[in-house]
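Worked example 3. Consider a protein that binds pyridoxal-5'-phosphate.
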Amino acid sequence: MSNIQILWVLGLSVAAIVVWRLELRLELSLAKHRSLTGHARMSRWFSRLVPFYEYGESEFFRVDGAPVEVESRRRSAFERLAALYTQRFHKTARLTQELQGDISDLQFTSRYRVPFQFSAYVRRHFNAGSFVESTSGRTVTDLDGNRLYDLSGSYGVNVFGYDFYKQCIERGSERVRGLGPLLGAYHPVTAYNVRRLREISGLDEVSFHMSGTEAVMQAVRLARYHSGRRYLVRFCGAYNGWWGDVQPGVGNPTPARDTLTLKEMDSATLRVLRRRRDIACVLVNPLQALHPNAAAPSDSTLLDSARRAHFDRAAYSHWLQQLRAICSERNIALIFDEVFVGFRLARGGAQEYFGVRADLVTYGKTVAGGLPIGVLCGRRQWMRRFREERPVDVCFARGTFNSHPYVMGAMHEFLQRLESSELQAVYRDLDQTWDARAAMLNARLEAEALNVRVANLSSIWTVWYPKPSRYNWMLQYYLRAHGLALSWVGTGRLIFSLDYSDADFAEVVERFVAAARSMQQDGWWWADASLSNKAIKRQLLSEMLRARLHLPSDRSARPEVGATAIGNKA
Ligand SMILES: Cc1ncc(COP(=O)(O)O)c(C=O)c1O
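Given these inputs, the predicted complex is written out as structure tokens:
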């Protein structure tokens, strides 16, 4: 071959590699969700650009251009509600205020209950407090003796009711009392737990961790170790704990370079998985079936009424089947993160519920009967932490409190009770029960033309708002005033325990509808016909730009618009 020919071959080879790499890059771009949530780097960059500004008293009640009459209705309702909070949650609020500066978590959550533009003003007037004295049945009781229906679900831990977990903890503690807090060696109850977890998951090995976050970390670490590949694929909007690699966007100060965030339920993602050779694992949080590609809905991001949710079991099952097929074909580890949904949807978790088997499955929250836990179950070939043929090349994982005897004791109680006919009956017709309850509440809300609806994945619910509004986040304060306790993310996530009877639920419906009715009568859902979610976003963008450029606000100069009110119709 002549030199010219060699140069041609070399040139063509380089060109082929460049084209191939460009093609892969293009495919990756097409598999990213168009929202900011789908672009981790850009969302972090954007978050640093957003300046602080807030609505002063004059604009707080009419930032949507409401007429004077609506503004004054809102103002007096706000004052009335604030007075009720001061009187009803007095002790609870006082202790919360005392400790607010000293507990970082409390400081953060109280600040991010509503959009930041409204936050300081709301905080000055409403403090329901974050302390609770006791739980009983479906209710929680605060320091002032107020009993509220619990819709927080204890971050998802509370699947079977608080009394159930109290018993698991008490009986479990009795079982292991003789051993006390000894770590390193196992209490014999652990043998039962391992057997049961293997049987429930249908997988070969089990490892215990202290939190769901750690179980996910270990699953991904093992997938990288055994595949020898670099990338973790996670899905847009999904929460998988707070470890850096699974949280590449806002919230994590450093970039996650080995994570690809792709669109869920999209063929472009399947193309990427089929073509690339550097993907170690695909991490799925099946909770996303309720709102694929959208982040966990929190009221602090409830700037308009764009929040939507809809669960389609058949479609999501099909998606998981497609993922399963490609992962098997490409030897990619398929990880189901069942920390939230495990044991809530079905006894066998999401694997049973959607009819798809994973290579690695994480559990957490509820599985230790109310004590802190993370569990990883997996196929043997993915779980091994060493190689016979290369003894120094290990995959390290430890944790002082892993397999703590008291945690193992409470887990033993949980897993044993799971087999009782009483709990087996709880899973029967579960979806029909919760779908019918959601439909019942929606029918009531619709009949009264209230601007609020719910969507659900079994007993996990989210609230959405059909018509555009700047004030949807106010609903959380009305719900509490009507005796419904939510977690700090507000109406974004309602979690019911499965022991809610029809009578309990009917009571929740009455309170929910009454709260929404008051909110409507008080004018918060007033809206001019021209108000749209797009218009709200445009207005917010303009506000941010003005704040960023230190230009005076144009909000108080906004002309009043005519009243074609949603609120006035109530
Ligand atoms: C799906 C999922 N994975 C992981 C985690 C993290 O679990 P933990 O808070 O126990 O670390 C959570 C917590 O909410 C979760 O919902």
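Take a moment to read the result before moving on. Confidence is low (pLDDT under 50) at residues 557-570. Residues 61-159+430-521 form a domain with the Aspartate Aminotransferase, domain 1 fold (CATH 3.90.1150.10).
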